[in-house]
Amino acid sequence: MAAKKDPRPCSIADTLAVVGEKYSLLVLREACLGNGRFDQLVRNIGAPRDILAARLRRLVDAGILARHLYSERPQRFEYRPTPAGLELEPVLMTLMAWGDRHLRADGDRPMLVEHTCGQPMVPTVTCSACGAEVRHEDLRAHPQSPGWTVTGPAPAA
After folding, report:
1. Three-state SS for 10?
2. Which residue among 20, 60, 108, 126 is least packed, with the fewest CB closer than 10 Å?
3. CB-based burial of residue 39 (10 Å sphere; 0-12 exposed, 13-18 middle, 19+ buried)?
4. What is the number of H-type helices and E-type strands within the chain?
5. What is the C-alpha separation between 157 and 155, in angstroms, rounded?
6. What is the pLDDT of residues 67-113, one digit of tens each?
7. Contact 52, 45 (CB under 8 A)
8. Following CA atoms 117, 125, 29, 122 in sequence, which dihedral angle do they give, to the nearest 10 degrees?
9. pLDDT tens digit string along 14-46?
10. CA 120 to chain CA centroid, nearest Å
11. Statement: the pTM of the whole predicted model exceeds 0.85
12. Residue ranges of E strands in the chain
C-alpha cells in the first residue's frame, strides 16, 4: 500500500480553513454591510446562536473581524471588519456576481451593490501589472512548494 502523502500546499485551502465554515462568509457579508451586532447577525444570517458565537470568535481570532464595545451596561459588542476582513470584500462581491449569473435564472438579484460612480458594481479580476482582465486561458501556474508540480507530487528521485 502506498504511503499517504500530504495534500498540495495551498493558500486557498489555508484561507478556507479560516473562512470556509458554514456562515463565516455570511458573517463577513453582514459586517461589511454595517450589521455587526449579534442580534442583527442572528436575524440576517439565520445561524443558530451557538454556531454564530463560535464563528465570530474564530473570525476575531483570525484577525478578520474586530470587536467594538457599543454598550457598557449590559456589555455588548459589535463586530467590524478589520483591514484583512475588508480585503475579503471583493471575494464576497465576486461570489455574489457568480450567484446572480448562475443561480438566478429569473435575473432577480437579491442585492444590488452600487459603486460610487452610481452604477451597479460588477466585479472583474484584472492583472495589477498590465490592467488586462484575467481570463483562464491567460494564466500559467508555477508551483513554489518543493516537491510539487502542477499535476501533483513530483516523482521521487
Report:
1. coil
2. 108
3. exposed
4. 6, 4
5. 6
6. 999 999 999 999 999 999 999 999 999 999 999 999 987 878 899 99
7. yes
8. 40
9. 999 999 999 999 999 999 999 999 999 999 999
10. 21
11. yes
12. 65-72, 75-81, 148-149, 152-153
Q: How far apart are CA 80 and CA 85, in angstroms?
A: 9
Nearest in space to 44 (alpha carbons), one of 59, 33, 55? 33
Distance between CA atoms of residues 151 and 136, nearest Å: 17
CB atoms within 10 A of CB 64: 23
CB atoms within 10 A of CB 81: 20
What CATH code is assigned to 11-87?
1.10.10.10
DSSP 3-state of 130: coil
E-strand stretches of 8-146? 65-72, 75-81
The ranges assigned to domains in the chain are 11-87, 89-105+115-134
